[in-house]
């Protein structure tokens, strides 16, 4: 069974389009949808926005369904200058950009206390496979790199520059870092597929609303290709 996590209704809806034999369950305030995607049993979950929601949902998903691995799918703001709205960002790793204990000697910004890592790497075979599946979807551009998460919707060029300088990264959003941390702590394999809805700049709130549906569809298409072929 594959566990799939989306933060928002618009993101999960594009996956439900190709999900069959749907059965809905609610557990600890989260909606879990069991279904069949191209012959593979999946459980889709709607976690809500932000790192705490995502962490709670990921832990619940693991404890209740014990999926073989987890894929987080949705939209993100673009950080890298060459990345355009509609492009795909595949995470090689995730960072929580708002985790900050750097006032203590020897600690760096983004370093997660207890784990002592800044970046948590996604599972290589999953990320490689997603990349291979994405190549066939033209004309969408694919980018791989670090995805930055924080409990902030980024809509300022200053903040964007700060994030770029501190962590690099290709895209920003609000859940992947905590999903990565929960997977890491549970030794659960995971991957992240995001499509760009905005440029995290002054007009990102407007672009987000305008492009969330089309970008969610792009991300869902990559997921569908992945599920069709991940066992090959
Ligand atoms: N998800 C999509 N766009 C985003 C942004 N600009 N900031 C944070 N999360 C996002």
Description:
The chain is of the alpha/beta class and 232 residues long. It has a single domain (2-229), classed as Rossmann fold (3-Layer(aba) Sandwich). 35% of the residues lie in helices and 31% in strands. The chain has six helices and ten strands, in the order βαβββαβββαβαβαβα. The chain has helices at 9-16, 51-65, 124-134, 157-167, 176-185, 204-229; strands at residues 2-6, 20-27, 30-37, 40-46, 69-78, 88-96, 119-121, 142-149, 171-173, 189-198. A five-stranded mixed beta barrel has the order 5-9-8-6-10. A hairpin with a 2-residue loop joins strand 3 and strand 4. Helix 3 packs across helix 6 (204-229). The chain starts with a strand and ends with a helix. Bound molecules: adenine (ADE). Residues 75-77, 153-155, 172-174, 197-198, 200, 204, 208 line the site of adenine.
Largest sheet: 5 strands, mixed, barrel
Report the end-to-end length measured between terminal Cα atoms: 16 Å
Number of strands: 10
| List of distinct ligands in this structure | adenine
CATH topology: Rossmann fold
Provide a count of the helices. 6
Helix share, percent? 25-40%
CATH superfamily grouping: Nucleoside phosphorylase domain
CATH top level assignment: Alpha Beta
Strand content bin:
25-35%
The H-and-E topology, N to C, reads as EHEEEHEEEHEHEHEH
